[in-house]
């Protein structure tokens, strides 16, 4: 992968992560690096699922912005659901 490809992947990850954080309600304690990682993981998940649903093949394609954003929303939703369980305190 070229330097331009790496930069493009980071930009896609950042944009997808920021959009996902804006869509999912609640406070997410994520910094800039965690937002980029969230977006990159979401991009991979979203594009793999889009390839499976649309073409019937489980192949990776980094070109779909909409799939990257939807994947990041899905990944952040799962993260909030899982991390939210551990952060609740029991008060009596």
From TrEMBL:
The chain crosses the membrane at residues 6-24, 31-53, 65-84. It holds the Pfam family Transgly_assoc. GO terms for cellular component: plasma membrane. Keywords: Cell membrane, Membrane, Transmembrane, Transmembrane helix. Coiled coil: none annotated. Belongs to the UPF0410 family. This is Uncharacterized membrane protein YeaQ/YmgE, transglycosylase-associated protein family. It comes from Blastococcus mobilis.
């Amino acid at each position: 992968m070229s330097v331009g490809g790496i930069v493009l992947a980071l930009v896609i990850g950042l944009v997808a992560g920021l959009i996902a954080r804006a869509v999912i309600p609640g406070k997410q304690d994520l910094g800039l690096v965690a937002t980029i990682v969230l977006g990159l993981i979401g991009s991979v998940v979203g594009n793999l699922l889009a390839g499976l649903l649309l073409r019937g093949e489980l192949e990776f394609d980094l070109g779909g912005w909409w799939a990257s954003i939807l994947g990041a929303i899905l990944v952040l939703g799962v993260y909030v659901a899982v991390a939210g369980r551990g952060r609740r305190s029991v008060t009596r």
